[in-house]
Amino acid sequence: MTSPALLLQVNGETRRVLVPGQTRLSTVLRDELGLTGTKIGCDAGDCGACTVQIDGVQACACLVPVAQAAGHAVTTVEGLAATPMGAALQRAFLHHGAAQCGICTPGMLMAASELLAAEARPEEAAVAAALGGVLCRCTGYRKIVEAVCDAHRFLGGGPEPRAPWAGCAVGERLPRADGPAKVTGTDRFGADAAPDGALWLRAVRSPYPRARFAFGDWAPLLARHPGLARVLTAADVPGRNGFGIYPDIKDQPVFAEGEVRYRGDCLCALVGDRAALEAIRTEELPIAWTQLAPVTLEDALGGEPVQPRWPDNVLTTGRVVSGDAEAALRTSRHSAAIEIETGFVEHAYIEPEAGWARRVGDRIEVFACTQAPYMDLEEVAGVLGLPQAAVRIIPSACGGGFGGKLDVSIQPMLAIAAWLLHRPVRAVLPRGESMASSTKRHPARIAARAGCDAAGRLTSFAFEGLYETGAYASWGPTVAGRVPVHAMGPYRVPAVAARARAIFTNNPPAGAFRGFGVPQAAIAQEALWDRLADAAGLDRLEFRALNALRAGDGTATGQRLEHSVGLVECLDALRPRWRALRAAAAAANAQADAEGGRRRHGVGIGCMWYGIGNTGMSNPSTMRLTLGPDGLVFHNGAVDIGQGSTTALLQIAADALGLPVAAFRLVLGDTDLTADAGKTSASRQTFVSGRAAAEAGQALRQAILLRANAGPEARLALRDGRLLVDGRPVGLETPLEGIGRFDPPTRPLDADGQGIPYATYGFAAQLAALSVDLDLGTVHLQRIVAAHDVGRAINPTLVEGQIQGGIAQGIGLALMEEYLPGRTENLHDYLIPTIGDVPEIECLLIEAREPLGPFGAKGIGEPALVATAPAILSAIRDATGASLTRIPALPHRILEALHR
Amino acid sequence: MPAYHRPTCLREALDLLAAVPAMQPLAGGTDIYPARAAAEAWLQPRDRPLLDLSALPGMAGIAERPDHHRIGAGTRWATIRDAGLPPWFDGLRGAAAWIGGRQVQSRATLGGNLCNASPAADGAPPLLALGAELELACREGRRRLPLSSFLLGNRRTALAPGEIMTAVIVPKPGRGATARFDKLGSRAFLVISLVSVAVVIEAEAGRITRARIAIGACSAVPQRLPALEADLAGLPLGLAAAVPEPAHLAPLAPIDDVRASAAYRRHAALVLLRRALAPSLAGAAA
Prior knowledge:
- Chain A: Belongs to the xanthine dehydrogenase family.
- With 900 residues, chain A is an alpha+beta fold.
- Helix content of chain A is 29%, strand content 23%.
- Chain B has 286 residues and is α+β, with helices and mostly antiparallel strands.
- Chain B has helices spanning 10-19, 32-40, 77-82, 90-96, 102-105, 110-116, 124-129, 147-150, 226-232, 262-276, 279-285; strands at 4-5, 24-26, 50-52, 62-64, 68-72, 133-138, 141-146, 151-153, 156-157, 164-171, 177-184, 195-204, 207-216, 223-224.
């Protein structure tokens, strides 16, 4: 069928397109017109990333047949700056740090600019209503609201962007170095670019949690679809048909061999032209299935093995034992016990997995969204059977990760396809496939007990956690190792017995998700403290302050914490808010009592600690600076997935070197051009790569001073490409280099979990104030106050962005998020917080300097989330007495708990 | 890609539909495209041809007649949300402001919401409570059908092969009519109802002359509650909130699903109902 030409008015230009009229407008904008600033997150109107304006009114471009847009004025992010308010909004976003990963940013901007065209100085409620249809997984929305409310101030320029003097960048609220591309729609995410002539790849995935399968003859399918170039199965994998996080556990096959182990497991892949792939129906595929009874967490222990290598379905056991916890519990004046259960949680990054691969001679290049380029490199080399030097990974802009893009997804199969076909091959996962196939947060079943003496001092803590690790190992060993170290929280507990086991089932692989199992443990641990505090007759905050770790204390792993233990300062900062919020809640409850109101107010508290970097394992980072005729270049291999490491590391390197950030050119991520910085996980980039960046800056400074024969206090300047040292020019014909490397000092844990698992820890305490509708079980969050010891805030705006975004995910974990395979594989059945679900958040930054860290800094990425759910659940208990044992605290569960 | 037609007159649309009965009418696209995305993710491309109704003249807009309002089936939710309408439309307008996000409200249509026939369709309860009728066109002519007879089940309607919904007819209620809509979901925006409640109350001199009440998302088809309506008639407005009892919910048949348990839905329906009948509405009506 030939399609009539359609005339579109896009950003003021008339564009002629020849596509079927029902083609999604989003597809036409991106694929026909090259306007890839419009992002696609779900193709279902659930996420709003593709929001454009049609005649000035916001619409999801993924839901609009292009024929309906013909003859109307379409505005995309590429056309936003044409209006003064659009340009002002972009500047406001940069100033306020409203863009993190940037994948939702174009949609946010287009939705907000509709509002601002009608109302230049909107109230917060109007902003929320206007942006309610765009999901953001990074920011927690608060800085977006601020930017939109504030946009009018940026008409005609607004406040000058900060350009600190040399040596003064650390501590400054610099706008993101990679921000302009994010607010103009020019950043390149995984789906935004591919080499010309790239074929497409579609994975074929199991609809069953467990089944055996056999392939029949592919020839009829290939004959029926001439555009189908090749079908790839396990037999086609040139190297090892397996990948996985640990060098000795490559248990997840690229293409399954005879058995699939979860709904979403990959059997084979179809490679060909896009139209051909889109026409292929699952029932055409020659696959004979034999369904098998899936192994669930109920029957995993003692049941059939999910993988033969682990006959008992126990992947790993982690334990920490110090003292005699049982004996101490028996003699404790007060004791408490709790059992809780949490579900799978989906990362719900708004950018589904996407990228391309191409063969360049005897090398392979992979461009994809990732948190760990060097791990991708190792996996791709492994499955292709190539030396690592033959692999180049080019990270795309990463539209959210949160741990979910640490494991490879499409990279191995793209690489295999491109290698075998000698053609570039690209893939973009549909939202449903992304959710079905990707890793999740581990569901946990936790039983914990604790005791304290009459004065409220903790005596003992016992913890038993079953963590469902799903079909493949992924990060299960990391979770099982990290949980027992953290399970008692940031407190002095003389006797500890903590065990966590990662258990295989026929569910999606549970992997890394912001906190590696610690958020689940914190829910149990903090609930116990509330009970013990009540039993001992202590205020809940004071109970925590009494028991809080302090510098000089030992931990349950036998580590003495010498520096940077800022929990007491966090609690001190919270105390006045705690008292005020408690008083306000009591007054509101008294009024409700008097008036027969059905809302009960409460205030809760949660504390956390989090070891920065890998657990008792080497995790180095290397950073490199060069200075030569082509200027000052920062070769930074740390992937910025939105958290801001590109900017923070630049601030660190700049101050260590003694030149302003504007002097630097950035080379980021590409494994051919940057050294291994390690993965963006474990909250490690600011601490580990930041320290490496500081070392690199100092090394280059030393080299400069040596060449200039100058003293340590010399002032550096770069003017028009010329280096000046104390005003005197220094030749750069021979380039200079500074390399910095840092590997945090740790000592592996022994069989009892004794050792030095982490070089430093982040600490935090958060308050949540909320009300509960006693009739409906619904929760209304009023305010969250978060006090975080970050060592040193390299960039306070970025740190606050991490805290607010982590809190939003904590809200989701506490109140709404639960992934059910086969049932919530989209973003309207799987609910994450919207702009209306995140209350006002006050961030209090505590800076207990870490001597090992760059300028005293440690990490914030995961600490941001851990304390939130415990604080919310504590507040629900405070308001109603209801103690939730099944998380999330959905309204019906709260009502059940109320009536228990 | 399946065939696609975008006729510019109703006659042409009806002819196309008669020629290809499998053709799927498309209005705002906000249900059809998500369903396609879900299917395509599992290699199940949809090949039903599409009949885009958005270019048909006279399908959108709200017109007042002596005894009713006529709302074109192609009227978008944003239009209803922002329209200046009499108070008995407050429920429908409330629903309009809550359907998806603004992006969906700006494209999705009233007719599409009803034809999609989701048990949780927010458009249905307010219109059931208003006693709305639908205008359905086919090549032979037009017919009217009460909404209550149109909705047959989960995703099932009485739309006959070859028919297109052209308008929703909302009869004007008696004097002093007010309306309210409330829904319960698990987050602030972009939320599918766990329970929705629509109430239209007519009152004179502080007494209810007629109450019409509908509940959504608690049965395959949103339901009116005739027993409750009968019990409310004649009562002082101030007493209305105390009237609903569990027995009044007999027409409901809620299910357990990923969003809530059946028991919770039944309970929440009663709570929302009592609140919808609470004095502030009475005060407004008095």
